[in-house]
Fold each of these.
Amino acid sequence: LQLGALDATVHQSTASRFGIQGFPTIKYFAPGSSDSDAEDYNGGRTSADIVEYALAKVAENMPAPEVIEALSQDVVDDACKEKQLCIVAVLPHILDCQSKCRNDYLKVLKDSAEKYKKSAWGWIWTEAGKQPQLEEAFGMGGFGYPAMAALNSRKMKFAMLKGSFGATGINEFLRDLSYGKGQTAPMRGAEFPKILTVDAWDGKDGEMVVEEEIDVSDVDLDEEEKPKEKTEL
């Protein structure tokens, strides 16, 4: 955020160009805007009022946090440990939800991250079964995907999404969190779960692994010895 000051009594032509008629006048120029797009500030005149307005504009124009795949301990630590909350999504296995399905879920997550970017939360996702200790810590394991939890890594407490994994359900969940509402539970073990190092999703559909049939037609099998006939004495 850049700040500038202008003495309108000295630079009268510039003051006229921006329609400045009274003093003091504060105008805001959004990134990439032109002179004609200047926004008048109509808030309070104390330093606290102006700083609050400026910080709100910074948050408004900052990029949304990235929704990161949980690929290693370092990746998750960087995304979550210094944040007030970390939003963790576990998506269905790729064989249960192919690339279009997964990308639809990721879009919902990215849209939610954009909507709540002012909160500066961390956002991570993983595929069901890839990070078993993470799922176990939230009590997610084995069923109910997609699932979402919000973790406070400082207090080692989390809240689970109870509603639908869609724009409306996630918005209600995150809105309550932003107001300090919602039921929380202590993290199992009272520590951040261990994150395995895994390969990133390649963006493609999943394929069933087909076991190759073994051709045994050219394998020589010894004939079983026939039992010898008993000779009576």
Amino acid sequence: MRAQLTAEIVEVARAHLATAGAAQLSLRAVARELGMVSSAVYRYFPSRDDLLTALIIEGYDALGAAVEAAGGDSLLQRWLAACAAAREWALAHPHEYALLYGSPVPGYQAPQDTIAPAGRVALVLAGIVRDGIAAGEIAVPEESAPVSREMLDAVDLPEGLGGRLVQAWSSLFGAISFELFGHTHNVVEDHEQHFTQVATRLAAGVGITPPITPPSL
């Protein structure tokens, strides 16, 4: 019963993201829609921030699961599929994406619980790079990177590639955000083709390039 009601509260709150936005999320409004007194909702989520955290973790986990489910045969195919899965999830869930990567909610400070879910996409991309290193398809550059040791340990990559991975990860969501929030309106004519080109260049940045086709004899 408790799990079911918790899920119902989160579902209604998710709908409120679309109508009122994260900054206006109200436990009282959620309780009213569920036909409950607000004090009852507070037993499940003591504050608005607790409810926001639940929505954020749920969003990161859904996005991460979508990217983890993407596949392909070659390193480049896997990389492009993972990037495309992130974009497709964002386009299908714009309000949830905005909660994760849009304007910060005034007064809200994300707790430690959100860190692991937030890193799931980066770990997928890092796994592809590690497989490329193991297969001898990606060379490890001898370069330093302004990336924390904690991040390098999390992605389990040498410093140079770890830095490039962080650049690719942040650029990936920059490209998605530009499209989703309308910054490429009247700028890009074919968003899917444009995104594929961006993702391919990001792949090249971490050493993933298209296989060379030998010339026909």
Amino acid sequence: AQCSSSVDTTTKRRRAVIKMAVRVAVVGAGPAGLCAARHTQAAGMSCTVFEQSGDVGGTWQYTDCVGTDAYGIPIHTSMYRDLRINVPKDVVMFPGIPHKNTEDSYLTSEEILEYLHNYADMFNLRALCKFNHYVKRISREGGEWLVTVIDLPNNEERTYKFDALFICNGLNNKPMTAYIKGAENFVGSSMHSHDYRKPEPFAGQRVLIVGGGASALDLTNHISKFADKVTFRPPRDKRQCTIEDHFQLQDESSNN
């Protein structure tokens, strides 16, 4: 009986917290942000989604642009043109809302983006979004969340107050470049996979891809169809390498 009383008290306390948290901010209109917006709206809360781009989809949005956008904000997405998901589509979906493509298991990025657009339309989530709004600062004051955003088209800054906050701006949107001794002396072009978009610009070139993860493997496959030669250099160990260490493998590798 004592345990039952404790559970009832906890349940009442949780309900009280939910009832008070009527103003909810969501940062990002990608998959997580859309899901958060849908369920907070369904619970009767007031929800506002701040999205720095012009539409929903988050990192699944493709753009040829790299570096910064028209407003000088770093490009968030790492999406490249020919990407397919590397897990079955059944684990890249919201419960009870299947993909339209029932034949293929590994979908294209365009199909994933279409799925997210349909999800947003299904629950009228775009009506909750403030697009082209860049979140500049978030702070806590007097039991409230203060979210300062920049309305990019109008170049106006404004601070909103909320009772609850979801941070849904994604993972790995800021590229991390490994230090390679001597790389500053390399006279060719170099880029992080975050800025890769399509393989055609590498036609006729000799390309070195450093890394052993999913992106490195996928880019090796795509670029090898156009480049004169591709060297795939997975990390051997955690010791520091030099630029000479990487390029000495060029004679050992070729296109596959």
